[in-house]
Amino acid sequence: MSHPIEYNGQKLTAWKSSLHGHTTVSDGWQTPQEVIDRYAAGKYDVINFSDHRKVNPVSTYDGKGMTLISGIELHPDGPRNILWHLLAVNVPEDFPGIYETAEDAIKAVHAVGGIVYIAHPYWCGLTVKELKPIADLPGIVGCEICNTSCNIIGKDDSSAIIDALLDLDFKMNIIAVDDGHTPREYCRNWTMIIAEDNSKEKLFDALKAGQTYASQGPEFYKISYQDGVFEAEFSPCTEAILIGERGFGKNIAPELDIYGDETITSLKFDCKSIPWKKYFRCRIRDTKGRFAWSNTFYLD
Q: What predicted TM-score, i.e. pTM, was given to this entire model?
């Protein structure tokens, strides 16, 4: 459900978004309309349809008040007989779904004005060395940090791979997704897109700019990084950590009992007080053990 948020001094709105999921158009268990109905009941504002190798005719669907975006998941051949999983957002409804190489697929999405996220690299088994050739191509804007569907084998969290790419100076925005194929995988992880309104144009501009946060439940009400100072306000949480490169970071509330009921709802930290040099993001955790992550902020 959308909510107001202050983002770098601007009064905007955070829109609850499902950016990766599947329907009977590919290998999902429910029809597109059934998926729409489920996410509408979950108070979502946006769905990017991303069936395998097939684009959905979203202009023909009843969005139940949500903004529907035409996307696709592309699977060119990758290293060591691993298929690439490339999540595209905002492509035409007649966009082709078959490409021989990841480079060709990414270039094709970029050429039509879309953007691409690397989907669940930990689940795929891809190494940083294998990701490097595509990570900086025009059209690639980020990576999934958490994926509901991949939790079935315990490989839902790709944060270590994202950090390794960031440490090599690749720019990586982060999103959280369901990648839902079955109803039990719906409405578990989502991306809040921070924009003026929920028109497709404003939402897409915000995604490209990295104006997002990812969540399993906690909400950010303020995110600000200006003049080297990071500030945040959020729903009650037992943990708030700034995660930087390598061994750098800052636990804002180390004295809290993370298994108790004591909580915090804000933080303010001068990032110049730590000798990190590249990037950081804020991770918060609520009393139910659910996380939310700010997007990546760069220190250079």
A: 0.96
